[in-house]
Write a structure and sequence with these properties.
Layout: E1 2-7, H1 12-29, H2 33-37, E2 47-53, E3 56-67, E4 70-77, H3 87-101, E5 106-112, H4 116-124, E6 128-130, E7 142-148
Parallel strand pairs: 4-5
Antiparallel strand pairs: 1-2, 2-3, 3-4, 5-7, 6-7
Length: about 150
Amino acid sequence: MHTILRTDSSNPDFQNLVRELDKDLAIRDGEDHAFFAQFNKIAAIKHVVLVYENGEPVACGAIKEYENGVMEVKRMFVPLSKRNKGLASIVLKELETWARELNYKKCILETGEKQPEAIRLYKKNNYTIIPNYGQYAEVESSVCFEKMLV
């Protein structure tokens, strides 16, 4: 049985999952980790989704406003032992629903070419690859996506 919780970045379960995410990314990103880490601070994120399985936090993600009408998906994570069960899609769909409720028209996100499972997740959930945006514009290892919510 899965329970979905809408919360914010002050939630300790979210903070613990993000610590696990950052450890994984430090390995994957290698020497580029410090560059990406500067864009992934979690202080004051107002829109966080957690999924619980039998009371245990097993997945997380967040959205934050990128610009008027656009939310950016951030901090998506499922621990390795819980992957391939559809948990990330549950989080993503709940984030999209929340963004729609807040009258946002589009979600965007950045992931890395060293995260093939994330790329598959976003493609499976109808995200389209777009030119790299903002701080990722010149980063060859970044893969950026968007999805219209209307």
